[in-house]
Write a structure and sequence with these properties.
The structure is a single chain. With 520 residues, the protein is α/β, with parallel strands linked by helices. It has helices at residues 20-29, 43-49, 87-95, 185-196, 205-220, 233-246, 264-275, 286-293, 299-319, 333-339, 376-385, 390-393, 413-433, 485-498; strands at 9-14, 33-38, 53-56, 82-85, 99-115, 131-144, 150-155, 158-165, 170-173, 224-228, 250-256, 279-284, 324-328, 366-368, 441-455, 458-471, 479-480, 502-507. The strands form 3 sheets. A 9-stranded mixed sheet has the order 2-1-3-4-9-8-7-5-6, sandwiched between helices. A 5-stranded parallel sheet has the order 12-11-10-13-14, sandwiched between helices. Strand 11 (250-256), helix 7 and strand 12 form a beta-alpha-beta unit.
């Protein structure tokens, strides 16, 4: 089974939609392997990929613009099913002889489609009124179908909300089935990959673990592997996976920079060293990091210092070890996608805190990246299957520089200790109230300003803590979480009563955009 879990595979050609990665994730959630590449992928590479089906993503362009992207013609000549989503539907229609025009009414947001004909794609998507709620995001629209296509659904302002040519297995939808706002989006994507493309369900956590262990054993053999363990999701899952594959040939270095959450260093050691029997070297470096950060207030300067010190500490620990051939890293698929350079010259650099980059020349290790083809949600499922506790795997995101960017301005031990306590109280109350899992990310921020407070019969002149909680699906946009006033009141009261150095608590009601999720 493990040899075949990527044989059934779907190719996603990306036209620049903010939702493109969601398409690949939804396909994988349906149990089918998928990869995403820029729309200008070469014919030879498309053939070599040997897809069972191809999905053309949405995108911000108009098919009428000079030089706007087109799907490679081979997509329509391979004889495999093709699904065009939004822009993908529009370019497919134009390339096959249909017509696309600028819509007089632009559709953005929820819409109800009227299903005229339930083809294989729309099977079980409509309700008893032959309608389905979808998410629209388009200005242009298809106004004339290519030969062989029939309309399958419409809205009052979009006559061809979906269409298909079932003889050639070509399908197009003007809405976005990959977003959670589309009610039966999962069903639609499942219909495409299973009923239309004929794929199985082999892509799942158990099969991935079995395959990955075999691959790691073949790559590593009897060699020694070093891993920088941060306690975050990615490095934790890499540690558990490597330990399962190669046992005591794995050594982890945990750099405790003094900028972690309350008791996090001890929790990491207990989980991986005590409970799982993994060899973990703890480098207690709080004083070193705080000394390097003294007097520094610029956020980017703080990030660079923290990154530099991490590399130096990690390198010092690595030099103490003999016989290390491989360096394991927690690179995941979104990092790979962001860093891929298309023929158009668009490129993004992998975020530095994801990897131990920039090691000195004397530490020339070969890389092991067992998660580089997995999305974050897949990594989490793998972690649970490998025995890492659910509460560790599904914790809210924590920045690579840690509390260094949640303490505004200069970083001091006093500030970090206060922030740790405040943040812990915030998390306790969110969990107790059930709001932790309803928010995508929540944390406290230390404000380097003092405020007057009254405690008993005396006045207190102490620090301010800001609370931040957001709701989001993709972290590209986010709204502040509408926590109950009673809950905010309880959290605020506890923080000011239990931390004598805090005199005021404020709640951040900024959404993204224009604000960012983190403060720095």
């Amino acid at each position: 089974m493990t040899q075949n879990i990527t044989t059934d595979r779907i190719l996603i050609l990306d036209f620049g939609s903010q939702y493109s990665q969601l398409i690949a994730r939804r396909v994988r959630e349906a149990g089918v392997y998928s990869e995403m590449y820029a729309y200008d992928m070469s014919d030879d590479d498309i053939k070599a990929f040997n897809p069972k089906g191809i999905i053309l993503s949405g995108g911000p362009e108009s098919v009428h613009e000079q030089g706007s992207p087109r799907a490679p013609q081979i997509v329509f000549e391979l004889g495999v099913p093709v699904l065009g989503i939004c822009y993908g539907f529009q370019t497919m229609s134009e390339q096959l002889g249909g017509k696309v025009e600028a819509g007089e009414v632009h559709e953005f947001g929820y819409a109800k489609i009227d299903v005229a004909q339930a083809d294989k794609l729309l099977s079980d998507v409509q309700d008893e009124h032959n309608q389905s709620q979808v998410w629209m995001s388009h200005g242009d629209k298809v106004t004339k179908l290519a030969d062989g296509f029939v309309v399958t659904s419409s809205t009052p302002s979009c006559p061809y909300a979906s269409a298909s040519d079932e003889t050639r297995h070509f399908y197009g939808v003007q809405f976005h089935p990959e977003v959670t706002h589309t009610e039966k989006g999962e069903t639609l994507i499942s219909n495409f990959v299973h009923s239309i493309c004929g794929c199985g369900n082999a892509w799942n956590s158990d099969n991935i673990i079995e395959l990955r262990i075999k691959q790691l054993q073949e790559q590593i053999g009897d060699s020694e592997v070093l891993l920088g363990l941060s306690g975050g999701v990615d490095s934790s899952v890499v540690a558990a996976l490597l330990h399962r594959a190669i046992g005591d040939k794995l050594t982890c270095v945990f750099v405790d920079n003094g900028l972690l959450r309350l008791n996090e260093g001890d929790q990491v050691m207990k989980m991986f060293s005590d409970n799982m029997g993994i060899r973990v070297i703890r480098a207690n470096s709080e004083n070193r990091f705080l000394t390097a950060l003294a007097g520094v207030t610029d956020p980017e300067a703080k990030r660079k210092i923290i990154g530099r010190e991490f590399i130096e500490v990690f390198s010092e620990e690595a030099r103490k070890l003999d016989g290390i051939k491989f360096l394991a890293q927690g690179t995941i698929y979104p990092d790979v996608i962001e860093s891929a350079k298309s023929k158009q010259g668009k490129a993004h650099v992998i975020k530095s805190h994801h990897n131990v980059g920039g090691l000195p020349d004397d530490l020339a290790f070969e890389l092991v990246e067992p998660l580089r083809d997995l999305f974050k949600d897949e990594v989490r499922k793998l972690g649970v299957a490998l025995g890492i506790p659910h509460h560790m795997i599904y914790r809210h995101p924590f920045p690579g520089p840690g509390l260094g960017v949640r303490i505004l301005g200069e970083v001091k031990k006093e500030y970090a200790d206060i922030l740790r306590l405040a943040d812990d109280i915030f998390m306790q109350e969110l969990r107790a109230s059930g709001w932790y899992d309803k928010t995508a990310q929540a944390f406290a921020v230390f404000q380097p300003v003092k405020s007057v407070g009254v405690v008993g019969d005396g006045r207190r002149y102490a620090w301010v803590i800001a609370l931040r909680a957001v709701e989001t699906v993709d972290f590209m946009t986010a709204r502040f979480a509408h926590l109950p006033y009673e809950l905010i009141d309880k959290i605020s009261t506890r923080i000011m009563n239990e931390i004598r150095d805090v005199s005021r608590v404020v709640y951040d009601v900024s959404s993204k955009p224009p604000a960012t999720i983190e403060w720095e």
